Amino acid sequence: MRPTNKAPRPDQTRINERIRIPTVRVVDDEGGQVGVMSSSDALRLARERGLDLVEVSPNARPPVCRIMDYGKFKYEQSKRAAKARKTQHRITVKEVKFRPKIDDHDFNFKVNHAREFLEANNKVKFTVMFRGREVAHANLGRDILEKAAEILDDVGQIEQKPRMEGRTMVMYMSARRDVAKKSGKEDKKPTE
């Protein structure tokens, strides 16, 4: 069996001689329109300026090429991607489970956990699990969920009102925007 040396190129941007389209629209290094010309003329113009001809919009008709420093272009692209990854926040759904006959201390303990989740800008799924004949008393579960929503009203808002899903009653809450912003700023305070 022959080894294959064809590793896929991570970057598919065509530059300089790899641009094989006969005519291209050219934008110069300052952003001004040069016009539509043959790719060989555009490449010659880029070489005269000591820069590269980079295809920035291959799907346009004719394709748009820009005269620029390709190394600088790649560097700026990687910086933009890194910044986008850094600012991206994944919101996860945390679940808090109750029973219809939950004790006050247990209820408060679980609501405090839900408060921490909401302050961390996560969504919270509240679940009341019914067993056997407890399903007949769905109003107890609704009361528990409404009480939790009332307590957490300062940090969260109801995203989906309480509803039955089989033998469980479910309610979703998400963090309020103003609380999420405050908690992000508080984390960056200097410690003494």
UniProtKB/TrEMBL annotation:
Q: Which SUPFAM superfamilies match?
A: Translation initiation factor IF3, C-terminal domain (SSF55200), Translation initiation factor IF3, N-terminal domain (SSF54364)
Q: Where in the cell is it found?
A: Cytoplasm
Q: Name one GO biological process term.
A: ribosome disassembly
Segments forming domain Translation initiation factor 3 C-terminal: 91-174
Q: Which residues form the Translation initiation factor 3 N-terminal domain?
A: 15-83
* UniProt cross-references to Gene3D superfamilies, sorted A to Z: Translation initiation factor 3 (IF-3), C-terminal domain, Translation initiation factor 3 (IF-3), N-terminal domain
Under PROSITE patterns, the record lists: IF3
Q: Which keywords, in A-to-Z order, does the entry hold?
A: Cytoplasm, Initiation factor, Protein biosynthesis
The molecular function terms in GO held by this entry are: ribosome binding; translation initiation factor activity
One cellular component (GO) term of this entry:
cytosol
Pfam families xref list: IF3_C (PF00707), IF3_N (PF05198)
Q: Which InterPro entries match?
A: T_IF-3_C_sf, T_IF-3_N_sf, Translation_initiation_fac3_CS, Translation_initiation_fac_3, Translation_initiation_fac_3_C, Translation_initiation_fac_3_N
Keyword Protein biosynthesis belongs to the record: yes
Q: How does it assemble?
A: Monomer.
User: What does the UniProt function comment say about this protein?
Assistant: IF-3 binds to the 30S ribosomal subunit and shifts the equilibrium between 70S ribosomes and their 50S and 30S subunits in favor of the free subunits, thus enhancing the availability of 30S subunits on which protein synthesis initiation begins.
Q: Give the protein family.
A: Belongs to the IF-3 family.
Q: What is this protein called in UniProt?
A: Translation initiation factor IF-3
Q: Gene that codes for this?
A: infC
